[in-house]
Design goal:
Strand content: under 5%
Mean pLDDT: 80
Number of helices: 61
Shape: extended
Largest sheet: 3 strands, antiparallel
Helix content: 55-70%
Number of strands: 9
Length: about 1250
């Protein structure tokens, strides 16, 4: 951003936005008029002289005239940066003398002090080296700097900040001289350091004597630290002569325990290090690091050691960037010095020491040392390794966890140079891990894993052998190493896997085979697991191996092929290995020069990786044949890894071999298509274990190969696609054929083929419209979407040719097909909009006459095409067209003319009067889009017909019409106003609009209450309950901000709703009827509820299972009299005769026989007590009316019929048995 000129700044002042600047404007106008009267040009010099005279007048009487001085100094601050430097140097004494009284005023306004500081800053920047040689006692720049230093510690934050900024800018712009630092840097550093020492001493004395709270001087101490930070940041690091005292002081402040002070001290060190990262001031860094090292605290000082170590690590990080070789040579001494802190009893010190050592290893080992070390570098590494090995002795046992982190960082940093200097460390950690009393096996495994990644599995296994084939006496097997090798092996020798791991796998597998078909023992299962673990390591060995051309020979390839054929459980690991082998070399061969991994290329260069790929290409044809065969024998759910491996090999297969392979597969596919057995197809064997037909399998392979085929093979490829697409008897095959076009789009050759054969593919798509099967619709739409960018401007008739199909798919049951249709519609609209009125030959569109007039490609024409579906013969077509128009309207509403929008709204208004629910449902979506997105002035004239037509459907309960209409009306009220909707609404339905208004008012009151803090809980729930949508269109269609009920007549529920907004809600105590709740009981909280307890709610009691006399299990509730009741099926009273019959037979009030053979009737409907009545067997039909509640005539008739029928049924043993099976246990004598 360009710095504004003086004229621009003054113009801005002349039009102030604040009343307080009016006086400044008056002064500026007076100065300009004076210059005009004196015929002086309005130059910076003229302004400066006039303002200086004005300031002199403000100080004339011995006291400062604040009203005049404030605008004068303000304008002087604006003008001074533009004044000539010789003028500022000559007038320095005069200006400083005039500004001094202002700066010394205790009660001066902040604006006056800030502008005075700005003037001083500009004056100091203009001074030369000779001016800075004057002492502080003389009127010169140093005295002005002293004033700035005092203001930099002021209590008022804005003044303090302005003074610090001025100091920073002055110190960063020293006058031309041979010295590195600014002439005033020492003075600033000394003053800032003295202030900091005094305040730190006062704070320490206050804490020790407890004469004042610990935080009394903290603000002043923070201000002093900030000043030190400013000086350190401005002067290219702290002046060399003052570094030692500053470091000691900062470390003492850091150990006070005040977190803010410690962080401030760290920031100062960070600022000093940053200032020294430049070439000019980097000469100070060695001395600074020497001083910090000499300030080493006591080993057990828990307060000082952690910050000291953090500063040390940061300092050597900067040192390694500036002097990498020198820092690396000092690393052994540093490592030994910091490692001693790992003996500390304090865990914080041990953690800080380990982090410091990790930082050393990560930052202080140059890459050149790893790639091409000198003899001296190797000796340095050996010294570090020796120190690291000593950390695993018993002396450092308490710090082993931290030591493990350091050793892991060493392996990570040294890479393959860790071999052999860290082999003994690896062996020691392995022996410690095998100790049964050692608990930190996970951390040890991490270190061993890093050793495997750095040195390779061969080196690690040389000191920690697996001992699985021929165990060494006294040493246990190390099967626990196999998962570590699986997770960490990388960039190593593949030959080691062939010579060590393959024989191990063969021996273990032979033991499994020798066991035969007998039931598997635990030992055999272990052998099988070991075989799988061994082969799970192969992907790691194949990750950029160092010896690919030597190790991957014909023998190894044959072994891999046999495994793929015979060992199904190993296929996943083998496929992953082959895929990794190719992809890791491809990634290395294509790596960009600016982002290369220098260390990785030191072992496998880009040229070597490219050579590896060429070498693997020799085996590609044979491996593809094997993989193809294995693919045909594998179930669909397990084919993914095989297909990915096929894809990897196809990418490196030579052109001629790829063509030959494709010819073989295509011929086999053609033969299969001719010999398709219809009878097999009709069996309909589908399921998880159903093997697809050979034709489908071959088609998968063709699709995979298509992205890599040369141009010569495209003729055959498109013939296959054409043949299958036009077959409607194989839906799955047709679905796969459509996938060819999107697959071709993933490669450059494929894109070129789509461009060249666009006309052919268009014709194929259009001609196969009538033969599309339902499963293939989505993939067909995806194919059209992939083809559309390659349709030339002269073939835009392709869009109307397939448009009707895309529109129909907007109503597809399959959600993915619908989404694809929506996306394709939008894509078509974008293509038409970008066509810039290109002609469309409508005579080439199917079902259009040969003399059809040509159209013009634009978005309006596209809407016209889609709108043609509104004249469809079926409601489904009309509904789909409305849905499509809604989606397009939301996307392209800004590109349509007002007339087109008006016509669309008017048309949909008519469709709202349709009697077909499917059409109206789509219309509701369109109306909602119009309401939320179209201009208000366009929609207001349509409300007179739109609202009545819309509100008719608020009486329709099916398909959620009522809720949708109410929501649309709510959006209308929100956008167009309540009055506009209310006056256009029919009189009979206005109560719905009134309800919407009241609901909105209640919601507003609730929101206002929530903002006032009265309903925070409800507001949080409201925020958490917001629904998320994938697209803006989905939000527009499906979002609903209506929280009210659908019924328009629930105004009387308002009082109940208001109660819920009370803060905290109500609480209820659940009491037992017999005794009150003991609020002192620990379990009393369980009896306090936020919901009102129901009187009829009874706690569920756990009961034991019941059995009848025959031993049958009885399911149901206990009766009131303790008898075993049946399952109770209650029916509502006053129901139909059938309901009464069922209630009489199976209800809880039905008659039951007691143990004495008597019939019992429950009177629980009328009494709470146990009031069952016994009736003699002979008096079944006689019921005591005093006990049973009086029934109605209908109930009485149904009851008698039911009882009589039941008695008749029970007379038959067969009926009695059936009744028993239903759980109605009838006991009799």
């Amino acid at each position: 951003m360009a710095t504004p000129s003086l004229a621009e700044k003054l113009d801005k002042i002349k039009s102030p936005g604040l009343q307080s600047q009016q006086r400044t404007v008056v002064v500026l106008q007076a100065v300009e008029s004076t210059l005009k009267e004196q015929n002086t040009a309005p130059t910076p010099t003229g302004y400066f002289a006039a303002l200086l005279a004005l300031l002199q007048n403000a100080n004339a009487s011995g006291t400062v005239n604040v009203e005049l001085a404030t605008p004068a100094v303000y304008l002087l601050d604006v003008v001074t940066p533009f004044a000539p430097e010789p003028l500022l140097r000559s007038k320095f004494t005069q200006i400083l003398t005039l500004l001094a009284p202002v700066l010394l005023m205790q009660d001066a306004e902040a604006i006056l002090l800030r502008t005075s500081i700005g003037c001083l800053e500009s004056l100091l920047l203009a001074q030369d080296a000779a001016s800075w040689e004057l002492s502080v006692s003389q009127i010169g720049p140093r005295r002005a700097v002293a004033g700035l230093l005092n203001l930099a510690l002021a209590q008022r934050p804005k003044i303090r900040k302005r003074a610090q900024d001025a100091l920073k800018r002055v110190l960063r712009n020293p006058p031309p001289s041979p010295a590195l630092d600014h002439p005033a840097a020492d003075m600033c550093a000394q003053t800032a350091l003295k202030n900091l020492e005094d305040l730190a001493a006062q704070a320490l004395a206050a804490r020790k004597g407890k004469k004042a709270p610990a935080s009394t001087n903290d603000p002043e101490l923070i201000h002093a630290l900030q000043l030190v930070k400013t000086v350190a940041a401005a002067s290219g690091g702290w002046p060399s002569t003052k570094i030692e005292s500053l470091c000691e002081l900062l470390l003492n402040i850091a150990k006070t325990g005040n977190e803010y002070m410690t962080m401030a001290a760290f920031e100062i060190f960070e600022m000093i290090f940053e200032g020294m990262s430049g070439e000019v001031s980097s000469a100070k860094l060695p001395r600074l690091m020497e001083i910090i090292s000499e300030l080493r605290p006591a080993a057990n000082d828990t307060q000082l050691v952690p910050p000291w170590l953090a500063i040390l690590s940061r300092g050597y990080d900067v040192s390694a960037q500036l002097e990498p070789e020198e820092t690396f040579q000092n690393l052994p001494d540093l490592f030994s010095m910091v490692a001693q802190f790992l003996e500390s009893q304090s865990e914080n010190i041990r953690i800080s020491a380990s982090e410091c050592l990790i930082s050393f290893m990560a930052n202080c080992v140059p890459q050149q040392v790893i790639v091409d070390p000198s003899i001296y570098d190797e000796k340095t590494l050996e010294k570090i390794a020796k120190t690291a090995e000593s950390l695993l002795t018993v002396q450092f046992q308490a710090a082993w966890l931290q030591t493990f982190n350091v050793l892991a960082a060493m392996f990570l940093s040294l890479r393959w140079r860790a071999n052999p200097i860290l082999l003994s460390v690896t062996k020691t950690i392995g022996e410690i891990r095998e100790n049964s009393s050692f608990r930190n096996k996970k951390e040890a495994d991490e270190v061993i894993g890093q050793a495997v990644r750095a040195m390779g599995s061969a080196a690690v296994l040389s000191v920690l052998p697996l001992n699985l084939i021929k165990p060494v006496k006294g040493q246990a097997g190390r099967a626990w190493m196999l998962p570590i090798l699986r997770d960490y092996t990388s960039n190593t020798n593949l030959t080691h896997f062939k010579t060590e791991m393959v024989p191990l796998s063969e021996i273990m597998f032979q033991r499994v085979l020798e066991h035969g078909e007998a039931p598997k023992t635990m030992e055999i299962k272990i052998y099988e697991t070991l075989v799988q673990q061994v082969w799970s390591i192969l992907p790691g060995y194949c990750d950029l191996p160092l010896d690919l051309t030597e190790a991957f020979d014909q023998t190894f390839a044959e072994m891999i092929a046999n495994l793929l054929y015979k060992q199904t459980e190993l296929r996943l690991d083998v496929c992953r290995a082959l895929k990794t082998l190719i992809e890791s070399n491809q990634a290395m061969s294509t790596i960009a020069d600016e982002e290369d991994d220098f260390l990785l290329q030191a072992r496998v260069s880009k040229e070597t990786a490219a050579g590896n790929l060429t070498y693997l290409g020799q085996y590609a044809a044979n491996m593809l044949a094997v993989l193809f065969n294995v693919y045909t024998q594998t179930l669909p759910q397990s084919r993914g890894p095989i297909l990915q491996t096929v894809n990897a090999f196809l990418s490196i297969t030579p052109k001629q071999e790829l063509m030959d392979t494709f010819d073989r597969v295509s011929k086999m596919l053609a033969a299969e298509l001719e010999n398709l057995n219809t009878a097999e197809k009709e069996k309909g064997q589908k399921g998880k274990d159903h093997m697809p037909s050979t034709a489908q399998t071959l088609m998968d392979l063709v699709i995979t190969m298509s992205a890599y085929l040369p141009r010569e093979s495209f003729v055959t490829l498109f013939e296959i696609a054409s043949l299958i697409i036009n077959r409607d008897d194989e839906p799955q095959l047709q679905k796969k054929a459509y996938k060819l076009i999107p697959r071709l789009e993933t490669s450059e050759l494929g894109k070129a083929a789509l461009q060249e054969r666009s006309a052919e593919l268009q014709q194929l798509i259009v001609s196969s419209t009538d033969k599309v099967s339902a499963p293939a619709r989505r993939d067909r739409l995806a194919a059209v979407s992939a083809l559309l960018p390659y349709v030339p401007g002269t073939s835009l008739h392709f869009i109307p040719s397939v448009l009707s199909e895309v529109v129909i798919c907007c109503k597809e049951n399959n959600e993915r097909a619908r989404e694809t249709a929506y996306d394709l519609l939008v894509q078509m609209g974008r293509r038409m909009a970008d066509a810039e009125n290109a002609p469309i030959d409508n005579s080439k569109v199917p079902h259009m006459p040969d003399d059809a007039p040509a159209g013009t490609a634009n978005i309006e024409e596209f809407f016209t095409m889609v709108s043609a579906g509104l004249a469809g013969s079926t409601p489904h077509m009309i509904s789909a067209s409305i849905t499509a128009i809604s989606r397009l309207l939301y996307e392209y509403r800004s590109l349509l003319s007002e007339q087109t929008l008006s016509d669309l709204v008017q048309t949909m208004d008519l469709f709202l009067t349709s009697n077909n629910r499917e059409i109206v449902k789509s219309c509701l979506g369109f109306v909602k889009i119009c309401v939320i997105s179209l201009p208000v002035e366009l929609m207001l004239p349509r409300l007179a017909t739109l609202v009545p037509n819309l509100i008719v459907w608020s009486h329709e309960h099916k398909g959620h019409f009522k809720a949708k209409v109410k929501h649309i009306l709510e959006r209308m009220v929100r956008r167009f106003g309540y009055d506009a909707i209310h006056q256009n609404c029919p009189e009979a339905d206005r109560k719905l609009i009134v309800n919407i208004r009241k609901t909105k008012e209640r919601a507003k009151k609730k929101k206002d209450a929530a903002r006032a803090g009265d309903d925070e809980g409800d507001e949080d729930e409201e925020e958490n309950g917001k629904q998320q949508f994938d697209t803006e269109y989905d939000r527009a269609i499906y979002s609903s901000e209506s929280e009210g009920e659908d019924d328009a007549e629930e105004d009387d529920e308002a009082p109940r709703a208001k109660k819920k907004t009370q803060k905290g809600g109500k609480t209820y105590i659940l009491e037992d009827d017999d005794e009150p709740l003991d609020l002192l009981d620990k379990k009393a909280l369980a009896n306090i509820s936020s919901t009102k307890p129901s009187k009829n709610r009874q706690p569920q009691k756990k009961t034991k299972a019941k059995f009848d006399l025959d031993g049958k299990l009885i399911l149901g509730k206990d009766g009131d009299d303790g008898e075993d009741n049946a399952m109770e099926i209650d029916q509502p009273e006053g129901g139909s005769g059938v309901g009464a019959y069922v209630a009489a037979i199976k209800g809880k009030d039905a008659a039951r026989r007691g143990r004495g053979g008597k019939l019992k009737f429950s009177n629980r409907r009328s009494h709470d007590g146990d009031g069952d009545e016994d009736v003699e067997e002979g008096g079944v039909g006689v019921v005591d009316r005093a006990v049973v509640a009086s029934p109605t005539a209908e109930e009485d008739s149904a009851w008698r019929s039911a009882t009589e029928a039941r008695r008749v049924r029970m007379a038959s043993p067969r009926v009695r048995e059936a009744v028993d099976d239903k759980g109605i246990h009838i006991q009799y004598t």
